[in-house]
Structures are given as C-alpha cells and as structure tokens.
Amino acid sequence: MTAFAFGLVLTAAFIHATWNYLAKRAGEGGAAFVWLFAVVSCVFYAPVTLFIFFWQKPHIGSLQLVFMVGSAFFHLVYFLILQKGYRVGDLSLVYPLARGTGPTLSTLVAILVLGERPGALALVGAFLVAAGVFFLSGGSGGFRGSRKLGVGYGLLTGIVIAAYTLWDKYAVSTLLIPPLLQDYCTNLGRVIMLGPVAFRNWGDVRKEWRIHKKEALGVGLLCPLSYIMVLTALISAPVSYIAPAREVSILIAAVMGSRLLAEGDARRRLPAAAAIVIGVIALAVG
C-alpha cells in the first residue's frame, strides 16, 4: 500500500468514526434520518460532481449504470440495517462487529475470488484487526443474552459492508467510474428509493429535521467524504489491504465513546484498540 493510499484511509477512518458518532446521537431516526442525510449529501456534492463529470468525461455505459444502481441498493440496505442495529444494540457492540466482519470477509473474498495475494505480514495484520474487533465488542460474551439482537445486526451489517466494498472496488478500478461520481450515485439512489417512504411519512421527516438538523447535516457532509477517500485509495491499492486498514476507525470511535459518550470498560477496550493499531501498521508495511 502506498503512503498516499494509507494516508487517505487513516483520514477516512477518523471521518467515518465522527459521522457514526453523529448518527448514534440522532437516536432512532430510522428511514427518515437516512433519507434526510442522503438529500443533504446530494445537494452539497452536486456542484463538484458535475465538475468532475464534465472535466473527466468518463465512459458511462450500461454496465457502469448497473454498478451505480447496484451500489445504491447495497448502501441503502447497509444504512437501514445499521440504523436498526443502533436501535436494538449498543454502539460499542454493533459498530465493532459491523466494521470487523466487513473487512475480514472482503479480504477472504479478494484472495479467493479476485486473486489478490497479500504478504504474510499483511495477513497477520488483518488477523490482529479482526481479533481486536472481537475483544473490543466483548469477546464471546457479546453473543449471549440481551446482546444477541445487536450481535445479529452487527454481523449482518458487516456482510453488507463486504459486499459493497468488493462491488465498488470493481466499479472504480475496473470500470473506471470516478469515485466521487460513484458515491454520488449511491446517495442519489437512496433519495429515489426511499422517496416514497419519506413522502408517506413526511411528519417523521420534518420531526427528524427539526430535532436532528445538525446531525443530518454532519452525516450528510462527512459520510460521502470518508467513502470517496476510500474509493480513491481502492483505485491503486488492493481490497485485502484497504478494507482492514479502514478499521482504525474503531480505535477512534472507542476514544469518542469513552470521552464524549461516557462509556467505560477501558481495560478491555484499550488493549483491543492497541491490537487494531498494530494490525493496521502490519497491513501498511506488509
């Protein structure tokens, strides 16, 4: 992985943790909140997307359109499941499981299907990231009792993350769709697909905007930015490196949780977060 790609991924991780913190603070917004911040993203990023489109003049054929629509669908499912997971489970449980399952699956599929061959040190790094995520979420205790629903949604979210990571990797690196355009179409697709639901429940949309305007604006601006940076890194770096390296956001989110949300259990979180950091360094070097 190049230093440029690594820098992009680390910056994106910080931004990703930040918008998840804002989304969690918004509470149980559901589909209304997902639709709102998608609209914000579309409005804010429209000028620069149009500039990129007319400047680069990318080839957009039928296959490219299929991948744009497919990406919109995957990301819509991702946000809805994630929101549901936050409704029934803790942030410190759902987020680590989702972010840990996704890159682990992405790495395995990239090796088995895409033919990528990461070095031994990179594989050790990926293992450390996954192990750190596991213990950060509570170890085997996270799979018992009242945490069961949260664990289920976290794992399901991770599966969707793996799917859209591999899907979008092909879109930007093989089909040569500009990352900004690819991400913009996922936001526009969510606005269109959720439009009927939003208009049928317009009262909920207005309520979410009134109560959580700042959160919707923050997520709408930061969420696309973090993923655009990841897609840019994916152009020149393998999925099996990029996907696990993104998970340094778990360390950042752990700090945000303990400092901003008054979450405890530092004895478990700090060693697990340290394992993730070591794993990310091993990925970059390997």
Structural features, described:
The chain is globular. It has one domain. By secondary structure, the protein is an all-alpha fold. α1 packs antiparallel against α9 (213-236), α4 (91-112) runs antiparallel to α5 (120-136) and α4 crosses α6 (148-173). It has helices at residues 3-25, 30-56, 62-88, 91-112, 120-136, 148-173, 179-200, 202-211, 213-236, 239-245, 249-260, 266-285.
Low-confidence stretches: none
| Main structural class | mainly alpha
Structure annotation, total helices: 12
Question: N-to-C SSE series?
Answer: HHHHHHHHHHHH
Task: State which percent range the strand residues make up.
Answer: under 5%
Mean pLDDT: 83
The end-to-end distance, rounded to whole angstroms, is 8 Å
Extended strand count: 0
Gross morphology = globular
The major β-sheet equals: none
Number of spatially distinct domains? 1
List the helices and strands and how they pair.
Elements: H1 3-25, H2 30-56, H3 62-88, H4 91-112, H5 120-136, H6 148-173, H7 179-200, H8 202-211, H9 213-236, H10 239-245, H11 249-260, H12 266-285
Helix pairs in contact: 1-9, 1-11, 2-7, 2-8, 2-9, 3-6, 3-7, 4-5, 4-6, 4-10, 4-11, 5-10, 5-12, 6-9, 7-8, 7-9, 11-12
Summarize the structure in short.
The chain is mainly α and 286 residues long. The chain has twelve helices and no strands.
